[in-house]
Each structure stands twice: as structure tokens, then as C-alpha cells.
Design goal:
Uridine Diphospho-n-acetylenolpyruvylglucosamine Reductase, domain 3, single chain, 5-stranded antiparallel sheet, 27% helix, binds flavin-adenine dinucleotide, 26% strand, Uridine Diphospho-n-acetylenolpyruvylglucosamine Reductase, domain 2, 8 helices, Uridine Diphospho-n-acetylenolpyruvylglucosamine Reductase, domain 1
């Protein structure tokens, strides 16, 4: 990237300087705490800023990548080429009217859940402890305990690569287990509307607390991870298969399978993205050999990975 550095600085000069970074270390933008540098990292705060950044990319054939809160990604040690648009810090406005909450894509699930609870609105409690953004949660149809994003999102809007804003309603999202139509279209989710139910504030807070206690007891939330490493295979659980394969607590240097919950692959501190990638590959291969089940990663591989590195997927 060094070769392109001064060119990129010229091309992206019109973006706000204090929110545009070049050759920038991405570790702190991912919950795995791994990953190399992004050529250009931009923290937009408005749709017009996102459009301006995309226009520069399009006019100069520069690739771009969107990140919400970086809680479901494995960023390559070689970093991310082109522009990375990180929404999770400045594109986070939330508004509320009656039973409806509207949130920009970078707003955290924690923020909308807290706003809902304060206003006696029930329906988002399940999401407490999911460290993602609204955009990432809609794209993934994030779910836990008794709920999923599909149950509460009524519409969302996105920016197409042609810079048109399109709105999707209800079934148009094609929500499935950890999936939505957004995984098949190249787009930037801009905002989502949630419709909730009136509830009892005390009961809402009790439910939130109950889920927090359950998570703390069963998941390694004090370690760097991206949550569940693999999707749940049909009629089974990834964590159970990994555990039954004898891999609970398996460790290679500073990366490994959690000893608390075998569904989580973790960075014990100081692991590289390649170390974590190797653990994923090992787990998938052992489970496949022992049980004939082909686990599919839930995490998204972002940045400069070679085909060879990720061929195990
Ligand atoms: C400790 C821990 C616990 C977790 N528990 C759960 C759980 O219980 N249930 C669950 O479902 N998940 C869980 N996760 C995983 C993760 O938090 C969710 O998948 C979350 O929805 C990801 O949101 P994000 O903003 O971090 O997305 P990111 O990791 O930033 O991105 C994920 C993918 O979405 C894309 N993306 C993000 N935002 C946008 C946007 N605005 N427009 C277009 N594309 C976008 C990215 O390009 C990437 O491909 C957990 C993670 C951790 C670390």
C-alpha cells in the first residue's frame, strides 16, 4: 500500500481529515483484536459523506469494504486494500417515536436495547450482549435466546453501488438463520426501523439481566472472539460437535477453542489472524473426519487473504 499512500491522500483529501486515516492499524476495530492495516479508514457521520467516499472509489477503481462494529469478522494480517468504511463510531444516531425506533447502521444493539428499555418497550432484550451494530445485525439476522432481528425489524434502507437509496420492507429482507438478502447484494445498509411492543419496565430489565447472567456463565465474554465461530449445522450444535471431537480447550500458541464454550474460537492475546485461521481450519477438519459434518463459519473473512489460506472453508 505504501506505493499508493500519497495518491490516496490526494484522492480522499475532500473527506473530513479528522475522520480519515491512511495505512491504519485495524486490530482495535475488530473484537478478535487481530488484523493488519487498512489502506484508508474512514469514519463517516452522514449519508452524504458515505456517498462522497464511494464516488471517489468508483471513479478510481478502488475497492471498498464496510464494517459495523467488527464483531463478526477476521481481518487479514496483511490488512484491507482500498477503503474501509467503519460505521460503528460516528454513524450512530437513534430516534424514537411511540413503539418505533429508527437507528443508523452503526448504532450499537446495546444502545437501541437500552433506549427501548428506558421507554418501556419490549422485543430487543434478546440482543443484550451481542456486541454488533444495527447494520451488522440486520445483515446477519443476529439472534439469541428467544429472539432474532427478523422479529423486530420492519424496514431498512441501503445505498446501492450506483448510489441509489433503496428501502426494504418485512419479508423483502429474506431473513434466515444468520442470513438476510444483504449477504447477496453489494450494498451499504444505512438504517433500520424497529417496531416493538409496550411492556413492563421492570420485567424488561429483569429479562435483560437474566440473559446477561446466562451469557456470563456460559460464554468466554472476557476473551477476544467473534462469538460463535461456526453456524449451527442442521439438527446439531457446532459447540457440541467440537467438544465431542475432543477440541474443547484446544490451543495453538495464542489462539484456540474456548475451554468454557467449544463454539467460540478465541485469541488469548497476541495471536495473529493467521493463527486464528489455522485453528478454524483444524477444527473444521477434525469435526469432518470424526462426524462427517462440514461446519460452515459464521465469521466473515475480511481483507487480503490468499485463496490458499482460506481454501479449507
Ligand atoms: C462475545 C460475542 C458474542 C456474540 N454473540 C452473538 C449472538 O448471541 N448472536 C449473534 O447473532 N451474533 C453474536 N455475535 C456475533 C456478532 O456480534 C453479530 O454477528 C453482529 O450482528 C455483527 O455485527 P457487526 O456490526 O459487528 O458486524 P461486522 O463484524 O462489522 O460485519 C459483519 C459483516 O457485516 C457486514 N456489514 C456490517 N455492517 C454493514 C452495513 N452497514 N452495510 C453492509 N454490510 C455491513 C460486514 O461487511 C461483514 O461482512 C457475538 C460476537 C461476540 C464477539
Amino acid at each position: 500500500m505504501k506505493n499508493n499512500d500519497s495518491l490516496y491522500r490526494q484522492l480522499f483529501a475532500e473527506l473530513p481529515r479528522h475522520r480519515t486515516f491512511f495505512d491504519y492499524e485495524m486490530k482495535s476495530f475488530s473484537t478478535f483484536k487481530v488484523g493488519g492495516k487498512a489502506d484508508i479508514l474512514f469514519l463517516p457521520e452522514s449519508v452524504s459523506e458515505i456517498k462522497a467516499a464511494i464516488t471517489i472509489c468508483k471513479n478510481n477503481s478502488i475497492p471498498f469494504q464496510v464494517l459495523g462494529k467488527g464483531s463478526n469478522v477476521l481481518i487479514s494480517d496483511r490488512g484491507i486494500r482500498g477503503l474501509t468504511i467503519y460505521l460503528g463510531s460516528n454513524f450512530t444516531k437513534i430516534s424514537h417515536e411511540g413503539k418505533r425506533i429508527r437507528a443508523q447502521a452503526g448504532a450499537s444493539l446495546a444502545a437501541i436495547t437500552s433506549l427501548a428499555a428506558k421507554n418501556n418497550l419490549t422485543g430487543l432484550e434478546f440482543s443484550v450482549g451481542i456486541p454488533g451494530s444495527v447494520g451488522g445485525a440486520v445483515l446477519m439476522n443476529a439472534s439469541a435466546y428467544d429472539g432474532e432481528i427478523k422479529d423486530v425489524v420492519i424496514s431498512s434502507s441501503y445505498l446501492t453501488t450506483q448510489e441509489k437509496i433503496v428501502t426494504l420492507n418485512g419479508a423483502e429482507h429474506q431473513f434466515g438463520y444468520r442470513s438476510s438478502v444483504y449477504q447477496n447484494i453489494s450494498s451499504i445498509i444505512l438504517e433500520a426501523d424497529f417496531i416493538l411492543e409496550e411492556g413492563n419496565r421492570l420485567e424488561i430489565y429483569e429479562k435483560i439481566q437474566d440473559f446477561q447472567i446466562k451469557r456470563r456463565a456460559s460464554q468466554p465474554i472476557d476473551k477476544f472472539s467473534a462469538g460463535s465461530a461456526f453456524k449451527r449445522p442442521p439438527d446439531n450444535y457446532a459447540g457440541k460437535l467440537i467438544s465431542d471431537a475432543g477440541l474443547k480447550g484446544y490451543r495453538e500458541m495464542n489462539a484456540g477453542v474456548s475451554a468454557k464454550h467449544a463454539g467460540f474460537i478465541i485469541n488469548y492475546g497476541g495471536a495473529s489472524a493467521s493463527d486464528i485461521n489455522r485453528v478454524f481450519a483444524h477444527v473444521k477438519s477434525v469435526v469432518e473426519d470424526k462426524f462427517g459434518v462440514s461446519l460452515q463459519p459464521e465469521v466473515k473473512w475480511i481483507g487480503d487473504w490468499t485463496e490458499e489460506e482460506v481454501q479449507w472453508k
